[in-house]
Amino acid sequence: MRSERVLIPLAFFAIYVIWGATYMLNKVAVAQLEPFYLAGIRFTTAGLLIFLIARLMGHKLSLSWRQVRNTAFVGFLFLTYGNGVVVWALKFVDSNFAALEIAAQPLVVLLLMWILQGKRIQFKSMIGVFLGFIGMYLLISQDEILMGPNSLLGVLMIFSCMLSWGYGSLFVAKADMPKNYFVNTGFQMFFGGIMLLIASLAFGEAWVAPQQWKPDVQWVMLILVIFGSIAAFTSFNYLLKRVSPEKVATSTYVNPIIAMLLGWYVLQESISTQSIIAATVLLTGVYFINSGKRKKREKA
Q1: 71 vs 117, 153, 163, CA distance in Å?
Q2: pLDDT band at 73 (very low <50, low <70, confident <90, very high)
Q3: Where are the domains of the chain?
Q4: pTM score, whole prediction
Q5: Is the Cα torsion angle 9, 15, 20, 23 positive or negative in sign?
């Protein structure tokens, strides 16, 4: 269809560039705003806007008690902890480093499936796991990473977020969730955002009124809410229905590259030769993991 010729490239632009840019955008915002407050405002606002859009589209917002509990739990795993702690870690590590570390997410999911579900790891995926560990070692072992103030803590906390995302991915696959993905996303963002704001209060973070934010932070928050939260996720789900999962999964390789380039160009973050080598090895490992999953699906 003619509309798909336009919508599909736009959707890929969203999951490639917009999602890749969120690391740089969060780094800019966290320079003025406290991390849990920043993430809480972003996701609560995005959730409320999704509710409004869903109602205008005629979708019902009623959930069963089990669905409420599940969306709140997933919202915690993905957003409250999984995203909020990453934003916190950006106080101590560069945005391009955070994006590269998170690129190993398929490796974490694969290992969790093996540990928690007893799923056999295919040979091609085993190669990916091996390369993934080498890439992570090359990335983390750099002196500028290990010697920075609290940078090692930031690295470890980002890894714990990857565990949270990985477990959340396994939980969602079997949980009773709202049938409409748009409504589902809205509740996850709303619950996750509310819990982030509660965490912000619990940790005594300073709340700054939006009118007191710097102009660049105001623009960043607007982009994060409308494009980073709503448009990109909607594009992701749209592509899952229009193209193969393997093509959608290519965002795993593109996001870190976009994040590295924007971190270097906008924030003047350095990119070492070792980081480039680590990124190449790590993303090659992710490719082998995804290829192993695809081969297993084809056999099934």
Answers
A1: 22, 29, 18
A2: very high
A3: 2-295
A4: 0.87
A5: positive
